[in-house]
Design goal:
The complex is a heterodimer of chains A (about 190) and B (about 190). With about 190 residues, chain A is of the alpha+beta class. Chain A has helices at about 20-30, 30-35, 45-60, 105-120, 135-145, 175-180, and strands at about 5, 10-15, 60-70, 75-85, 90-95, 125-130, 150-160, 160-170. Chain B has six helices and eight strands; from the N terminus they run E-E-H-H-H-H-E-E-E-H-E-H-E-E. The chains are: A alpha+beta (about 190), B alpha+beta (about 190).
């Protein structure tokens, strides 16, 4: 049993711990996973993971490990970073490192949990995210969850000799709550 | 004044930022008008000295320059390249003309042009972006003159004295840099 910080149906969020390092190294060594994270060119070993954990502590990241409810196995991570309580803004990121769990609705639920946390507990006003143009499934999911396109940084990513745009999206707290309290939203 | 310039332009020239200049930067950032333009940078400076804040950025591999009036050598502002991603060839830039007498006269535009020259022709970047508070029309007009174009808008990104403002994102690609290049003058091909 892991500590359940935020509870969903299929998954729950727990806090980060050193015990996940070997797992994170496995995820971060898989180009298919790191492609969307822009970290394929970084070699992540135990030292790098420890440094990263220190970094997120220093920079007040709100970082959660996504755990599958049925098995209690960690399958990914979801986080808020660049949290600015003065302006009430933050950026969101997610990674389902366990490829066998792709396309099963875990990301959708985990994002729902982190948004509830960001808007409901941290009292944020605007949460944004960025996604590479080639990551079409993710971009589609963010729109479905209520994020609005806010801009494009052109030719921001170079891969296999081709440049790809970086899409930026954001969501305001009132948009989040309008959706949440709409009768239709509950049946989604 | 005996400044060693790295990039020489018309109105302004750039020197590598020297730690001794951070006291002046501290004075600029104490001005509320400048503080509003810089929003989050300013807030970091409420609890850290400019030397601490920008010193850490210098050590972290960011490229900071002091901006000088070419005619007199006077230190009038600073600008920097940060969030540098050499693999994907992109970065963000920031600028501040701290001496207000030098605002609205093309010094900032000239300084940004030199910084873009450096970013594209020394760092070999492909894409450079920035963001500004949307009420800062003077800055946005200057960026447009340098070749930046509108890239996006983050709604209510900053709250100042109870009022919210959007952030405007702008970007420029290497092929869109039309300014005069100081660096290209050294290569005869």
């Amino acid at each position: 049993m892991k500590i359940e910080k935020l509870s969903g149906k299929k998954c729950y969020l727990t806090h980060l711990s050193g015990e996940y390092i070997p797992l994170f190294i496995r995820w971060m060594s898989d180009p298919e996973v790191t492609m969307g994270l822009n970290s394929t060119h970084q070699n992540i070993d135990r030292r790098a993971e420890l440094d990263f954990m220190e970094f997120i502590k220093q920079n007040n990241w709100h970082y959660f490990v996504i755990v599958e409810r049925e098995t209690d196995n960690p399958i990914g991570a979801v986080m808020l970073f660049d949290v600015n309580q003065t302006n009430r803004t933050a950026e969101m990121g997610i990674n389902i490192g366990e490829k066998s769990r792709w396309g099963k609705g875990f990301a959708s639920e985990a994002i729902g949990l982190i948004l509830e946390y960001g808007f409901g507990i941290l009292n944020l006003h605007n949460i944004c995210l960025k996604v590479f143009q080639f990551n079409k499934k993710a971009a589609k999911l963010y729109i479905k969850l209520g994020f609005k396109e806010m801009g494009v940084l052109r030719e921001f990513r170079l891969a296999n000799g081709k440049y790809y745009d970086f899409l930026m999206m954001d969501m305001l707290s009132k948009e989040y709550y309008e959706r949440k309290y709409t009768p239709e939203a509950k049946h989604e | 004044m005996n400044e060693t310039y790295k990039l020489i332009g018309g109105l302004v020239s750039l020197a590598v930022m020297d730690e001794e200049k951070f006291d002046t930067v501290e004075r600029w950032f104490a001005d509320p008008e400048i503080a509003f333009e810089l929003t989050n940078t300013y807030r970091s400076l409420m609890t850290k000295s400019a030397a601490e804040f920008f010193g850490a950025r210098l050590k972290g591999g960011e490229h900071l320059f002091s901006i000088h009036d070419t005619a007199t050598g006077r230190f009038i502002g600073m600008e920097w390249v940060f969030h540098i991603d050499q693999v994907n060839r992109n970065a963000a830039v920031g600028i501040c003309i701290g001496e207000k007498d030098f605002r609205g006269k093309g010094y900032g535009t000239d300084a940004m042009n030199l910084l873009l020259d450096y970013a594209f022709n020394a760092l070999n970047l492909h894409s450079v972006h920035l963001w500004a508070v949307d009420s800062n029309e003077r800055a946005i007009n200057s960026y447009e003159k340098c070749g930046f174009s509108y890239a996006g808008r983050r709604r209510d990104a900053v709250t100042i004295l109870g009022k919210t403002f959007d952030f405007v994102y702008m970007d420029i690609l290497d092929r869109e840099f039309k300014g005069k290049s100081f660096l290209k003058g050294f290569y005869n091909d």
